[in-house]
Amino acid sequence: MAGLDPTVWVPILGTWALVIGTLAFAYWQLRQTQRLHSTSTLLDLRERFFGPRLSFARRALAVWLLDPHRPEDPDSWEVAVFFELLGSLTRSRNLDWRLVRKAFGTWVTSYYLGLTEPKNLLAEWRADGNDPLIFADFEWLAHRIIAYERHLSPDPEFDRSLHEEARFVLEGESRAVVDR
Predict the structure, then answer these.
(1) Which of 18, 60, 87, 122 could cross-link to 141 by cystine, CB 3.0-4.6 Å?
(2) What is the number of other CB atoms lying within 10 angstroms of the CB of residue 152?
(3) Which of 88, 165, 75, 74 is nearest to 122 (CA)?
(4) What is the DSSP letter of 50?
């Protein structure tokens, strides 16, 4: 039986084991590189978020959202555009959504609730622009964060608490001192 000769099969099996091990290691390295890149990008986004330009835009939007007699549109869309980018990068899995939730979750949900309740301004802007995708990734991210936190929360008054927290965050943002 020449087919069962170990001098033939052992090197073949060894070669396959080496190939599979190499591929597994390469996959592991790729995943680690992706995680590091995701983390690095997230840190860069946090630096931008807390930088003077976006801090000023966040303050202006918070003031606008809290004003009961506000003009029809905010002066700047920069905060919503930032959250749209964040949602897009998260939805496409370029950023780990759990890290995004931890780094930006409070702000995402607070500004989202401010823009959608009691009046859904995002829906109005979509209708006015005849574009159902306006801020769709921002909305997707906010819904995902809210659903996850609702799942984790034992609080039966979660929705009320969430709205109170959003108001608290927006009030804090509106009083923030910003160096320009």
Answers:
(1) 87
(2) 9
(3) 74
(4) T
